[in-house]
Every structure is written in structure tokens, then in C-alpha cells.
Amino acid sequence: MVAVSADEGTFLSWRLLATEVTGASDTGLTGADFHVYRDGERLATVTDSTNYLDPDGTATGEYRVAAVVDGVEVDLSDPVTAWDQGYYDLPLRKPADGVTPAGEAYTYSANDMSVGDVDGDGTYEYVVKWYPSNSKDVSQVGYTGNIYIDTYRFDGTLLHRIDLGRNIRAGAHYTQFLVYDFDGDGRSEMMFKTAPGTRITRYDANGEVASERYITLPREDRRAGYSHDDDYRMSAADYYDHVVEMFQGWHEHPEVVDGSWPATLEEAFGIDPAYDYPLAREDAEALADHFMDVYAPSRSSRNNLRAFEGFVVDGPEYLSVFDGATGDELETIRYKPGRHDDGLMWGDYAMSRIEPGNRVDRFLANVAYLDGEHPSAVFARGYYTRSTLVSYRWDGERLREDWYVDSGWGPMSNPFNDSPHGVDGTDPEYGTLTTQGFHSISAADVDGDGRQEVVYGSATIDDDGSLLYSSFDEMPEGSATPGVQARLGHGDAMHVTDIDPDRPGLEIYTVHEGARSAPLGYALRDAATGEVLYGGYTGVDTGRGMIGDVLPDEPGLETWANHPEGGENPAGVGLWTADGRRVDGATPGTNQSIRWAADLTTQLVHGATTETYQTPTIEDWRRGTLLTADGTTTSNWTKGNPSLVADVFGDWREELLVPLRDSSAMRVFTSTEVTGHKLYTLMHDPQYRAEVARQQTTYNQPSYTGFYLASDMDFGEVPVPDLWAPGALDALRGQLAERVDGAAERRLAALLDRAERALERGDERRAVDSLERFIRDLDRRGVSEGARAALTYHAQTLIASLR
Questions:
Q1: Distance CA 463, CA 130 (A)
Q2: 2-88 belongs to which homologous superfamily?
Q3: Which of 311, 328, 420, 431 could form a disulfide with 425 if both were Cys (CB 3.0 to 4.6 A apart)?
Q4: Which residues have CB under 8 Å from 252's CB, separation 6+?
Q5: Where in this chain does the record put each FIMAH domain (predicted)?
Q6: Looking at the predicted structure, is the pLDDT value of residue 724 above 70?
């Protein structure tokens, strides 16, 4: 429950749990009703929503809400007082400034964020990624500061800080951090890429350092001489030596040996033969000089390889699992797949822009319920050329691989002059994955079988790791290759949900950057088959796109996109209805959407921070500005992302979490519009919860439910998930201790202990037997009528989740 001071009084908002839902009405779901209390006095009974405005509220008033089932209060919230400024500031501890090996100073700002209940107490903790001011895109040269990942309680208590170390570069594409309860014990773990030098610092209750330790290097790496003192960042001189050594080994490269690549570097560069192979050091240096000073600049004036520094293209790479509460390392394994090389095989030297360390270091991560019951962590590497995904289950002790997907290398005739994008990989099943991945990734049950698939941009991986489809379309007139079937290809924005409620299943809306080499600049597709439902060719990089219910008089969600001037349609893509009608040339924003308004429509977050700050706002396409978040900022340059948009408090609407401009705190805003709609917390929808964990990945995209959510929704169509809440048994035990005492309490507690032991053995049937015995024993002496009703309700809810 949350209370917020508003102009009209004190606004209260609380959750409806999925386990409390019993049916649906025209305006919302039905189930538990709620008594609202201020300072111990009942103010109201709320039946049609989970919010209330107290016109007489004060800053000192203490509020509680009780869930009511069949006239009996079965649960009571903890007391809260109002956020007196209309928002809450979660204090943060900014890391110290730093200086790079090149002597460049940098500072830190709070960046992406995620949430998880790390200690099992039923409330979220907040995980913040810190960005140095010199963070880089993978295509940008230069050193960066370290990335830090902090975990805070809501009062600002810093539990631990994980320093990824100097061997993980800072930038949107490098670090994707998953926060989720992967093993179902009620406590969230954290999982992300690490390297030698990754260090965990724990803090005590006074904010002082309690302990520091590095992750555990694999035994074979320690024996090979790797250590946490290693520094794999390349200086310009290091890169020159690296190229010389690469050239000296040219004659042994497998692609050269099998005849796929030119036998000599002179042939690759288009110059006359001059050297014997294997190359002597001085000959390799002469070719490196030619490559850097003549050949590379001839390909593009932007190729200044003499200035190449700050990249990490060597050294061990790991995937680590951390305890969310303590930061303790639980397991570290090798990152799969490894980089293999500096990007040569990935096509980083093949195009006119020569960009070592680019395509090889494109990472994605998300959570997916591949078996329909247990969450898996999915990590991806590469998407322009070779494309890989690997899925893991965490069982509390070990990571176990579900499946591995690899397109294989995209064949090239000359790694220094070729067009590797859009070329099938060598794997017979997954070869068409190349160039289909996006700067985001999603999990959704696209085929309705109860198990989530991984939506990988313009392709989708089935729950078993097989390729469900890879979307192609015919190239139109005016494109680079009219009449040819071509990949829809890579893009920057992707949205997966039920966009058109008049069609069965889910849809995917994407924008594409292939310009004249892509058949479509934007497209709405059937999520189950990949079939294009509508879309259009633009001929330019269509960089931004969004969906939402911004026209409530039109059925379904609207879609829109924008692109720079010079496209096929100079007026822009425009605003489209779910059934494929263009209704407006003007479009809402594309940075981030948010469910803020009381009427179930969609709003947009505006405000990018580049050289200057733009104050974030929440905009409604019809009503204008609904919130101005003074004193705060967004992240990720022109993309203008909040640190997080998610339903972390109160009713079904989403909160806006954005850092103060000095990053001293994370400011939390919640909507105070009174709504008459009743819906369970979005975090109980499996797709939405997984999407919140994914939201921080690369180019942040909104989180979507697995059902149609809009102003014209039919609440009778909202699926009610079967939830297993790991803390439910402990909560029942707490209810018992609060409501019953003496011999009756001891007798009933013994039955709950028996149920707990059965669950620990994985014997759900015996656990249910013990809980049913518990319910029967409530009829014995020593239990009041009110306690019997409340405890029966909670026990029955627990039994339902186990069956």
C-alpha cells in the first residue's frame, strides 16, 4: 500500500493479488473487497477498485487497508503515511569519480534499474546500475570507467555493491543484469556477465564496508596464470601489436587454410604481393602500417585505427549468479559463447566502417518461462552476423543449460571487404537468425501452449530451443533488390502483446533499420507465425516505434514510428490502428510508454538528456502534460529512458522511477488519478514480470502483459495466473500466530511444519494433505470465528496454488 499527498487530499493505492480474484465485471475484476482505515478508524469499503482518495487526509495520518472476503477481514496491510511531496526519494550512494589510463576524468550517474524481493520479506529491493560519464557504444573508441551494480532497500540502505571491474567495458550493449527469483525460494538472485576483477562489497547497517571479495576464477584459469590484477584494456600501442600478431598468424587461420579467405593479406587489401608467409615480424608490421594508414582510411574517412583504445577483446569472460540479499557469489561459469576473436569472424573488419570489438560484443538478456512453470535466464550474443542464445535454469545450487542456439558464422569471401549482414549462418537450422536480432528481446507465449517463447526481433525461438520462424518479406520497387525475399532484419524497437483483440493471440510491432536493404521499415506481425499483418517500406533507418492505446475511440492498440527525413514517405509513418488504418500523420513520442491514467489508456514519457537536461514529463496524446518531474533526468542519451517504469506499488498502474540530476536519489512518482477499474497487480502476469526484468536490456523497451490491456478491454478475457508464492506458508504461519494462541496455536503450527517439510521434499500431495487437515482442525476449540474464516481462506488459497 502507498499513500501520497495530492491536491484534493491523500491518495491511497494498494494491490489486488491474482489469488484474490474470483471473477470479472464490466469495469474490472471481482474478488476481495477492502476496508480503508485512517488512524484506526474505518473510512470506507472499496469494492470497485484498489484506490481511494481521503479528502480529509493529513501528512501525519496513518493508513491501513484490510482485504475482506465474505464479510471477514482476512488480511491487513502494514501502516503507511503519505509521501508529503507527492513523490518519494530513495537515497543513493554515488560511486567516486575516476580517471582513465589516458588521463581523462569521469563521474557517475544512476542509470538503469530493476526490482526484486531479495530477502523474502514481501517487499521489493531496488537494483541500480551506475554509468560512468565516459560510457561508450560498442562502435566508439576510448576507455570507460567501471560499471557498478548496487542493491538498496526502499529506505536507501545499501546492501552491497558489485564492481564489474576494468575488464567489462561500460555501455548500453555490454552489461545486461537480470534480477529474478530463479529458483523459486522467494528471494531474487542476480545474474550477469563478469570477468577477472569483478568484486563484491557488502555494507553493514551503518553503511560501513563489512567485507570485500572477488568472484571465484575457474581453477583452470588460475592455473593458467589469470588473476584479478589482469588488465585487458587495450591502448593504441596494444592494438597495433594485436594487429601485427593477427597478421603473423594469417596463414594458419582456418578460413585461410580451407580457401574461404584470401591466402595473403596483400590479396585481401587489393595490393601487389610483396611478402613471404608465414610473415616475419617486420613484414607483419609493414602490412599493419598499410592497413591502418592506407587501407582503412580508404574504406572510410572515419576509420582511425591508430586511435583505437579502451576496448577489451581478450581475456576470460564469465557468467555469475549472486545472492540478491548478500551479494555473495553463488556460481561462476564461462560465458557461452566466448568472443572467439576481436570481431574478425563476426564481420567487424568487413564493412566500410572498420570497428573491432563491435558485433562481437552485442549482448542481450531476458527471463522466460520456457516450461510454463519455472523461470529461465536467456543470454544472447551477436545479432548482426553470428547470432547466439543460451538458456539456463538456476536450481539454487547450479546453472543447468536448457538449450543453446547458434546460427553459425556468416560466410565471408574477404573479412576485410564484404557485406556480412543478411547472410545465412552455416548452421542448417538456425542459419537464418543472422541479422534478425534487435537491441531488445522478449518472452511471450506466442503459440498459446502455456510455455513462453523467446521473441528475438524478427525471429522467434520456440520454448524447446528450436526455431519457430524467421520472418522474411518481398523487397519492393525502389529497394536495393526488388522482388527478392529478404529478412525483415535488425531494428531498435520491439513490442510484444495483444495489440489487436479482434485477432486470436499476440502480435509483434517492430521497426527496422535496414533502409533500402530491408523490405519493411515498420511492421505488425502475427506473433505465432511471424506473418506480416501490415507494414510499410521506408527506405531509411526507421529508428523508433511505439504502441499504445492513445485513441480510445479506436479498438485495439495504436502503432506508430518515426524516421529521419528522406524516407519513402516524407510525411513519416504516421499513427495506425490495430487493423491497419493510417489515421493521423502526427505521432506521439517514442521514448517510453507508461500506464498512468485512470482510464486504462497509454501515456508517453518525454525528455531526453544529451548535452543539456530536458525535464521528464508524462504526456497524454489528448489531454497534454499529466506530470512534470522537476529536478530529475532520464538516461541513455537521446533515448530518454527512465531508470524504470513498472507496477512496483499500489494498483495496476505503473510508477515512474527517475534519478535526480545529481543522482543523489531515485525519485519515485505514482499516479494519483482515482480509477474505477480493478485489476490484479501487473507483476502477477508472467509475461509482464519477465518483461520488467528485461526492461533494462540494451535499448530499454516497455513491459507488456500477455493479455489485451486498454480502455476497451473485456475483463472477462483477463487470464488469472496460477501463482505459487514461496512466502505464502510463512505468511499463513504469521497469521496463525497473530490470531490464535495456546495449545490450539501449537497444534495447528505443527500441521504447517509438516506441510513445509513435505514441500522441501517436493511432495506437494502430502503438503496439501497437511493443509487440508489444518483447515479441518480449525473447527476445534480455541479458534474464534473470525480467525477460522481468515485462516481457512489463506490455507485454501495456498492449496489452490499447489494443485
A1: 33
A2: Immunoglobulins (2.60.40.10)
A3: 431
A4: 278
A5: 738-800
A6: yes
